[in-house]
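[User] Once you have settled down, look closely at the record that follows, and write a paragraph about the fold.
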Amino acid sequence: MKKFLNRKIILLALIAVFLGVYIFQSVSSRKNNIETIENENIDTILISYNDGEVEKKIRLAKENELYFAGEEKFPAEVSGAARIFDSVTNIKLLGKLASGTSDAERYGLNENARITVSALNGSEEVLKFYVGKDNSTNQQCYVNIEGKDGIYLAQNGMHAMMSVNVNDLRSKEIYRLDVDSISKITVKNQNESYELTKLAAGENEPKWSLNVLEGNALENPVDEKTAGTFATRVSSLTAMEFLPEDYSVEGKEPFVEVSVKSGSKNVKVLFYSADNEDGEAVAVCSETPTKFTVDRALAETFGKSLGDFYLADNS
């Protein structure tokens, strides 16, 4: 009985060893089959695909570690743009699935379904390939490389990554000003309008003056802390979402208008009520040609009430 158990233990140990060798060889074989296509000098990526009956064309460029989206060269959101650039400059082919392109439709690589990607260095095209469907894990996709026979499984779910438009890639930051450089803020809300002007004052003198254009002025001094906080509030603005080019605010009246002068720059923002009931507002800004949404409560902070700027009368 004891000899039988010893033989069984030895047999199980041998099975474990052979299994380990098999797994190691299998992993090593798969690693050796990975083919990498590297193009580190790419500075522009052109993406095109059919969205229904509309052909979408997106340009993504990299200049001095900054990314720009669209022909208008809008600043792009870094993480999303960098992810696309990393996927294109370092393509890992995990295995060949088919020779030729007779199975193109099966893999989403037929002409109406695929995404066309061109990678440029300056004006020279250094790589062109087609992206089909992502696989079931969304971690890989099917590709066809121009000049290379067959359909391949590639690392990264590039179909979802590149099924975007220019607004998806853009940075949501609309503007950012140096608070200390702000010299005047002009506000018009639904009840009043005023100018808040920074003064070149001494240490114990008022730093802000308030000029009431419409509304009731008080004799109370301006609350310096409130004025400074408000200047910080209007020094930057970030969009929630960009709206389609054909979105119109024609016939609507803004519920808040703000102009901010900082150095030689004068930024103007108008906020309109949104069509939906989701607590949003629509913004039009001099710093971008695209209308966008913001939180309604945030928009209302730009139209601060005149009375909030006066110190309380404690007499």
Summary: Helices lie at 2-33, 78-89, 158-162, 166-169, 224-233, 296-302. The first helix runs from residue 2 to 33. Confidence is low (pLDDT under 50) at residues 19-31.
